[in-house]
Each structure stands twice: as C-alpha cells, then as structure tokens.
Amino acid sequence: MILIDGKKAAAELRQELKHEVTGLKAKYNKVPGLTVILIGDLTPSQIYVRNKEKSANEVGLKSEVIKYPDSVEEKTVLEKIEQLNADETVSGILVQLPLPKHIDKQKVIETILPSKDVDGFHPMNVGNLSSGYESSVPCTPLGCYLLIKKVEPNLSGKKAVIVGRSNLNGKPMTQLLLKENCTVTITHSKTKDLKAECLEADIIVAAVGIPELVKGDWVKKDTIVIDVGINKTENGIVGDVAFDEVSKNAKALTPVPGGVGPMTIACLLKNTIECFKRLHK
Ligand code: NAD
C-alpha cells in the first residue's frame, strides 16, 4: 500500500512555488500578496491563520493578517474587503471562516473580487469551475486532486466516488475529477447503500466529518482513498476512513493527520500566485 505523504507533497509544492515567486519577482519587480481577515478569537481559526501566514512567508509571498474582534460590524468588514479589492499589492483575499452569526457569510464571499478569491468560494468561481473555465479552486479539493494525480497521473475512465456533497469539498472535488474524465458518483447522508457505491470505486474521496465511516470491506483492491476528515475523538484526531482496516485493501491512502491537511495550505499559496499571474497576464 502506498501511504500518501501529504507533508512531503506539500513541502515539494512549496519549494516549486518559492521558485515561481522568485521568477515573478525578477519579471515584475513585485511579489504576490495574500491578505487574510480573521474575525474573533476562535483558537482553531487563529492556528489556521498563523500557519497560513508562516507558509506564505516561507515561499516569499507578501502576507498580511487583519484582525477584528467578534463584535466588528459587517459594514466594517465589507468596506475593508472593498479597499483590498482596489489595492494592487493584494493578489488574494481570504476571510477565515466561520464568521460570527451577525455577519452574512455569503455577502462577505460575494464582496471579494472573483479574481482575488483565493478560496474559490465566490459564485463566479464556482460557476467557472463547473463550466470547465479557468477559476480559483477551493484549496482542500485542489490538494486532494494533486495527491491523487501523484499516485495515478491518468485518471481517464476511472470510477470515483465522493462521499459528502459540501460546497467546500465534495462538489468542487466532483468537478475536478469530471474534468479528468472520471465517472463520478457523489454520495451523501441520504445515499441508500454507501458501502455498495464505495465498492465500485477506483478512487474514493471521503469528506464527511464522521470518524472512520469508510470501512475496510467498503474498499476494493487497488482503490486510491483520500481522507479529508478531521475528527476529534477520545483517541485523538482521526479521519473519515478507518485507516488500519482500509490500508489492508487500498492501493494508496492518505493518513490523518499528515495527508490532505498540509496540502490545503500549500494550495492556498498556489491559488494566490495564480491570481497574481492572471492579474498580470
Ligand atoms: P460538511 O458538514 O459541510 O458536509 C458533510 C457532508 O457529508 C454533507 O454533504 C453530508 O450530506 C455528508 N454526510 C453526512 N453524513 C453522511 C453519511 N452518513 N454518509 C454519507 N455522507 C454523509 O463537511 P465538510 O466541510 O465538507 O467537512 C468534512 C470533513 O472534512 C470534516 O471532518 C472537516 O473537519 C474536514 N475538513 C478537512 C479539511 C482539510 O484541510 N483536511 C478542510 C475542510 C474540512
């Protein structure tokens, strides 16, 4: 079984991006800039943002974090986004989710210019991705896609089963694999026989949020299994895939932690650089 090392893949991607940033700096005399807006003091969000900032600095991006208290008015945030939209030194804008209840998430997402939407959540980017046009792609599914391609460069005709239909993970994952000519089944909480669906798959991507939902006897030999889940349990952090059981059958499997997680942040940096390049085309 191939243990898909997300940490290593992310380190390699960051190295490539670092070279790319050096080239862009030589060509344009400026570097891509990422601005993250962090609202409130939720510990996981603070950790994510700190890691994003650290990785951005590592590859040579200009990075900035703007912090607001929980009580900040929606209007203040929207005005700041407008200001960043107009700022030529800012290539990518990310508003760390979740947001306090009094702030309308969709309004925030739609205020970010699609060309600076490094999370790929703006409806324009969602539409472009599903139409097969150039777009920012949400970072986690993009990371999963790159890991799958490392194991199997030619995905044409493969049967992929996506478990979970969230806008963040399942749906964009479906679009990325359709583009590769996979036959994609998207499953969810109302799917009748999830085991039977998974047993058909050459590729399984599990993004559900239920600890160890995908069992060993749901996976046929030679399946590539990507585990997006991050679930806190009494036994520590586990994924949506029963790792020990599935590793006996799968051709390749991502661990949790150390699989998809590190690729998510590396893909945010990649998206920021792509936004910069599109802006300067
Ligand atoms: P979500 O709650 O938005 O969506 C979960 C999806 O799972 C829904 O579409 C639902 O229909 C489906 N589902 C629920 N119960 C099911 C069942 N019994 N069988 C089949 N499908 C079922 O979740 P999300 O935001 O996509 O996140 C999923 C998991 O991925 C979470 O554990 C989250 O923490 C993790 N996550 C990881 C990363 C990363 O970087 N590794 C990034 C984002 C999310």
Radius of gyration: 19 Å
Assign a percent range to the helix content. Answer: 40-55%
The whole-number mean of residue pLDDT values reads 97
Distinct ligand kinds:
nicotinamide-adenine-dinucleotide
* pLDDT < 50 runs, ≥5 residues: none
Shape verdict: globular
Q: Could you please say which CATH topology of the largest domain applies here? A: Rossmann fold
Classify the secondary structure makeup into a structural class: alpha/beta
Q: Which strand order do you get reading across the main beta sheet?
A: 1-11-8-7-5-6
Q: What is the CATH first-level class name of the largest domain? A: Alpha Beta
CATH architecture call of the largest domain: 3-Layer(aba) Sandwich
Order of helices and strands: EHEHEHEHHHEHEHEEEEHEH
Please summarize what this structure is.
The protein has 281 residues and is an alpha/beta fold. The chain folds into two domains: 28-114, Rossmann fold (3-Layer(aba) Sandwich), CATH 3.40.50; 139-261, 3-Layer(aba) Sandwich (Rossmann fold).
